[in-house]
């Protein structure tokens, strides 16, 4: 059949949100669309949003799972504030997401699911498709389920398997609409259903049917094109923060030449790091699923004592449980990487929602004076480099390091310019092999004058047998000491050696060089803050942006930077934890701006707040 | 091993330069002395031996051994030692713990180390009291124990440490007594030879807060009527009584006459050793000592290490090449 020629429109950016039941495969659909989009060379940023319940009752609001993808022909910093397109697989998905849509947005709905029963489940008395309530949007009703089943009538798969393929129909339709290359999705289906050739065929058919539907039906008159973004040359892949972090730890194993020992207890949203690392044993990575959070860090510390790069991965509740062992690691002065993928708290809170409220715990949440290094990645791909940096500090300065990721960067994704392995930092370490005094003794707490690190003398080294422990140690000898002057000295030394870790100066981005307002962020807020600053500058306003990767120690130039501006604003997804540190440390009147909704800042929220500060002081 | 032949260590070599600071008369002294005397027998160089402990009187033990050692935090020694042992197969790792450390705050780590069969030798010094915090009751104190924290008597039923270990299917379970140096050393020897987790309960006298707790089985006038010495292949008896397995019964019985059971620690079903462990309660009236269970099962360390070694054996290229391949895996695209 000859399809009517479709109009092709060019766009510079699009935000699409796929929404459906937890069991509808929306994460997978979003993931595939993202991968196709990456192949095309658009810049991308994604935001999955799913409930903690694995399968909440079907068709209900708590069961709605969504995946948002923002892609553009220029470089973008966030997954987008508001979707231009919503794919709603059922009434619940429509209801849960419609409030986020701007007027004029396209909504593709699966009409098969708009039954009286499903509408009633979410409190629609009348179908919103019929009562005019969606008039400000462009509605595209598609009988996704029955069209899929129709396409699969001859395939021989069960009705259940056929219905499950409706997400591929939706993906096919959207892939057509946005002119996506789909070969990688067909390859993916072959891999995913390798053991079920009938499902490979069914899902491919459903995908193709969706594509053809777009091409032939009059309901979709326009096809869109988004040209590739101008990005630095090189090889890219799309990557989530958790994946990047795991790969950063594998890279740390290779670059240090040490085995990695991960002790972990499953916890959302950190478990994917455990899953990923457990696949990479060939790099000398051992993963242990421990009996609890405390055992997880204990085993990692035990391995570190034995000369491995010890790592533990968790989220806030887990860090709370690990606190005592972190303090032991501080007393023992052994390298250890503690990854906290922050989620909304306190207590169980909202395990699948994001927050930055563990900064205080990372900096201060231990008994005694227990300083350590803290760093935070600013984007999904930056998690790779942050992991290497955490390993570098831990190994060089023989200290625990807390890496503060969060759900937003952990599950979000973006294109990652793949680094060259040989250019990654050299993390090789020197173990102690011989006595360190003139009279042939070994002093386990005799420090390297440059790094202030004590020797790493691992068991198995002849002649260096020694005992360490949590009791206060005498300077140099490490023997148990209750001497008041020694304790004071050791407490101050432990603080001083963290303070002395050299970290790069913080950079300020202010193309105008005339800004009077500085916005200071840390961690995952980099994207929305950056996008807000760009938007303000495009409108002729001036603003300076600085972003912290190192939270402990803070960059040496930070005080000077802060004092150079009339006003310092600190947006955070907490109640002002960094702002409080800045105020007390630098006596700067840092103004907190806080959102603690479990969702990342939108660029628009920050733009409007910053505009007010820039204009009105 | 060549180095074994060359080693001529003595007990003195295992004494550290630290002053021992247990209370005079503490049972820990005799355990330390027995350990230092026994260690040279192992033929393992000192640098390959590590003692890891938690918190409590017993947990000061590593400071006094001239080996590698870590005095860690309360209850966590089995977890820390698991990471060390799993990542360092060349080491000989011992855990020293007490009844509070292993069975209260660290109970979870103990049972999980045992079920995993981590290659650790775990010595639980059981004095049935909290010593370092000055005399509160412990999870092995007899019910009704009057202490500083229980002036009207403790209300909780104690753990039987061996029953607990056997419930976790520990592959090596033994009990001995601080004052019986010969027996203590024989049990340490058997534990050291075991591949996997070896759990040893050592009855240990706290002469300050719980003096005489084990006198019934230590005092020469009462000992023979209450102490059961388990010997592989020998009949199980106490005084002139026999330990028998009555037909139709789940447990064992101490009685006159009948056919005494012949001890076999290698019985695979932990029910046998468990039944033995039930002979002794808080009152110590019929208390077995010796090796209750000694069976073979692959250690956690061995299994985990094999997975890593197999993966390495299948890998090709240098680590840098492999990493480059890993980073470039999946759907990539190139911008020129």
UniProtKB/TrEMBL annotation, chain A:
Single Gene Ontology MF annotation:
oxidoreductase activity, acting on the aldehyde or oxo group of donors
Note the InterPro entries from the entry. 2-oxoacid/accept_OxRdtase_asu, Pyruvate:ferred/Flavod_OxRd, Pyrv/ketoisovalerate_OxRed_cat, Pyrv_Fd/Flavodoxin_OxRdtase_N, Pyrv_flavodox_OxRed_cen, THDP-binding, Transketo_C/PFOR_II
Source domain of life: Bacteria
Q: Which keywords fit this entry according to its UniProt record?
A: Oxidoreductase
Q: Which Gene3D superfamilies match?
A: 3.40.50.920, 3.40.50.970, Pyruvate-ferredoxin oxidoreductase, PFOR, domain III
Location of the Pyruvate flavodoxin/ferredoxin oxidoreductase pyrimidine binding domain: 257-477
- Residue stretches making up the Pyruvate/ketoisovalerate oxidoreductase catalytic domain: 23-210
Q: Name one GO biological process term.
A: response to oxidative stress
An example of a Pfam family matching this protein is POR
Q: Which PANTHER family match?
A: 2-OXOGLUTARATE OXIDOREDUCTASE SUBUNIT KORA, PYRUVATE-FLAVODOXIN OXIDOREDUCTASE-RELATED
Q: What is this protein called?
A: 2-oxoglutarate ferredoxin oxidoreductase subunit alpha
UniProtKB/TrEMBL annotation, chain B:
Q: Does the keyword Cytoplasm apply?
A: no
GO annotation terms (biological process): cellular respiration
Keyword Oxidoreductase in the entry? The reply is: yes
Tell me, what's a Pfam family for it?
Answer: TPP_enzyme_C
Highest taxon listed in the record's lineage: Bacteria
Write out the GO MF terms.
magnesium ion binding; oxidoreductase activity, acting on the aldehyde or oxo group of donors, iron-sulfur protein as acceptor; thiamine pyrophosphate binding
Q: Which residues form the Thiamine pyrophosphate enzyme TPP-binding domain?
A: 55-202
Gene3D superfamilies found in the cross-reference section: 3.40.50.970
Alphabetical UniProt keywords? Oxidoreductase
Against PANTHER family, the record matches this protein to: 2-OXOGLUTARATE OXIDOREDUCTASE SUBUNIT KORB, 2-OXOGLUTARATE OXIDOREDUCTASE SUBUNIT KORB-RELATED
Report the protein name in the record.
2-oxoglutarate ferredoxin oxidoreductase subunit beta
């Amino acid at each position: 059949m000859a399809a009517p020629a479709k109009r092709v429109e060019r766009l510079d950016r699009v935000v699409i949100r796929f929404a459906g039941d937890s069991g509808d495969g929306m994460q997978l659909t979003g993931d595939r669309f993202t991968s196709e989009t990456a192949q095309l060379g658009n810049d991308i940023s994604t935001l999955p949003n799913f409930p903690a319940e694995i399968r909440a009752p079907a068709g209900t609001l708590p069961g709605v799972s969504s995946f948002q993808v923002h892609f553009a022909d220029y470089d973008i910093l966030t997954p987008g504030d508001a979707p231009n397109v919503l794919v709603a697989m059922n009434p619940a998905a429509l209801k849960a997401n419609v409030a986020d849509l701007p007027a004029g947005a396209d909504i593709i709905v699966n009409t098969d699911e708009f039954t009286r029963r499903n509408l009633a489940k979410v409190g629609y008395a009348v179908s919103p498709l019929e009562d005019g309530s969606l008039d400000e949007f462009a509605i595209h009703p598609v009988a996704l389920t029955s069209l899929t089943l129709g396409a699969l009538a001859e395939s021989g798969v069960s009705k259940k398997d056929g219905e499950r393929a409706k997400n591929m129909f939706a993906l096919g339709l959207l892939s057509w609409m946005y002119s996506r290359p789909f070969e990688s999705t067909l390859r993916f289906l072959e891999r995913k259903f390798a053991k079920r050739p009938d499902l490979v065929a069914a899902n491919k058919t459903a995908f193709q049917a969706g594509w053809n539907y777009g091409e032939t039906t009059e309901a979709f008159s326009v096809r869109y094109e988004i040209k590739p973004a101008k990005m630095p040359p090189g090889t890219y892949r799309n990557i989530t923060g958790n994946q990047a972090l795991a790969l950063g730890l594998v890279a740390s194993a290779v670059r240090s030449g040490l085995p990695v020992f991960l002790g972990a207890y499953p916890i959302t949203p950190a478990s994917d790091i455990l899953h990923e690392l457990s696949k990479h044993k060939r790099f000398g990575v051992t993963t242990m699923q421990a009996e609890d959070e405390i055992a997880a860090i204990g085993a990692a510390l035990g391995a570190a004592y034995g000369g491995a790069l010890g790592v533990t991965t968790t989220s806030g509740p887990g860090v709370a449980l690990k606190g005592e062992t972190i303090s032991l690691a501080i007393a023992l002065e052994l390298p250890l990487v503690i990854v906290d993928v922050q989620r909304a708290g306190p207590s169980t809170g909202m395990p699948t929602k994001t927050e930055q409220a563990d900064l205080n715990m990372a900096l201060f949440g231990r008994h005694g004076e227990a300083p350590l290094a803290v760093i935070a990645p600013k984007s999904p791909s930056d998690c790779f480099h942050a992991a290497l940096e955490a390993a570098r500090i831990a190994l060089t300065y023989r200290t625990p390091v807390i890496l503060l990721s969060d759900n937003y960067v952990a599950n979000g994704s973006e294109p990652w310019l793949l680094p060259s392995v040989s250019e990654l930092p050299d993390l090789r370490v020197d173990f102690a092999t011989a006595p360190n005094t003139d009279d042939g003794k070994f002093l386990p707490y005799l420090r390297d004058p440059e790094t202030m690190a004590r020797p790493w003398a691992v068991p198995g080294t002849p002649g260096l047998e020694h005992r360490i422990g949590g009791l206060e140690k005498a300077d140099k000898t490490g023997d148990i000491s209750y001497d008041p002057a020694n304790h004071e000295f050791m407490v101050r030394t432990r603080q001083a050696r963290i303070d002395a870790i050299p970290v790069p100066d913080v950079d300020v981005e202010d193309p105008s060089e005339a800004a009077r307002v500085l916005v200071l962020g840390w961690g995952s807020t980099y994207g929305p803050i950056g996008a807000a600053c760009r938007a303000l500058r495009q409108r002729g306003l001036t603003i300076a942006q600085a972003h912290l990767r190192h939270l402990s120690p803070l960059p040496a130039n930070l005080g000077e930077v802060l004092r150079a501006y009339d006003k310092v604003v600190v947006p955070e997804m907490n109640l002002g934890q960094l702002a409080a540190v800045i105020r007390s440390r630098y006596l700067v009147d840092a103004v907190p701006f806080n959102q603690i909704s479990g969702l990342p800042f939108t660029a628009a929220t920050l733009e409007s707040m910053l505009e007010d500060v820039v204009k009105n002081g | 091993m060549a180095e074994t032949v060359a080693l001529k260590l003595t007990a003195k070599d295992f004494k550290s330069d630290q002053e021992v600071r247990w209370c005079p008369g503490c049972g820990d002294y005799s355990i330390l002395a027995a350990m230092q005397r026994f260690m040279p027998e192992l033929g393992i160089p000192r640098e390959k031996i590590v003692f890891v402990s938690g918190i409590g009187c017993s947990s000061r033990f590593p400071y006094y051994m001239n080996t590698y050692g870590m005095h860690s935090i309360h209850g966590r020694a089995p977890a820390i030692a698991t990471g060390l042992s799993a990542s360092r197969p060349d080491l000989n790792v011992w855990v020293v713990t007490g009844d509070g450390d292993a069975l209260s705050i660290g109970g979870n780590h103990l049972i999980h180390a045992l079920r995993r069969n981590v290659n650790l030798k775990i010595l639980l010094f059981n004095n049935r009291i909290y010593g370092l915090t000055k005399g509160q009751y412990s999870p092995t104190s007899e019910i009704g124990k009057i202490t500083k924290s229980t002036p009207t008597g403790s209300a909780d039923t104690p753990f039987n440490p061996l029953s607990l270990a056997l419930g976790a299917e520990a592959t090596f379970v033994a009990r001995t007594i601080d004052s019986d140096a010969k027996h203590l050393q024989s049990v340490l020897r058997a534990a050291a030879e075991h591949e996997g987790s070896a759990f040893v309960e050592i009855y240990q006298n706290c002469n300050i807060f719980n003096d005489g707790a084990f006198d019934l089985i230590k005092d020469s006038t009462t000992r023979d009527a209450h102490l059961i010495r388990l010997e592989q292949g020998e009949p199980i008896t106490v005084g002139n009584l026999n330990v028998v397995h009555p037909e139709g019964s789940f447990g064992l019985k101490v009685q006159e006459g009948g056919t005494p059971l012949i001890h076999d620690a290698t019985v695979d079903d932990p029910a046998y050793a468990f039944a033995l462990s039930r002979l002794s309660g808080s009152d110590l009236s019929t208390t077995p000592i010796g090796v209750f269970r000694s069976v073979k099962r692959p250690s956690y360390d061995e299994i985990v290490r094999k997975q890593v070694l197999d993966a390495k054996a299948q890998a090709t290229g240098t680590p840098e090449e492999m990493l480059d391949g890993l980073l470039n895996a999946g759907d990539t695209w190139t911008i020129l």
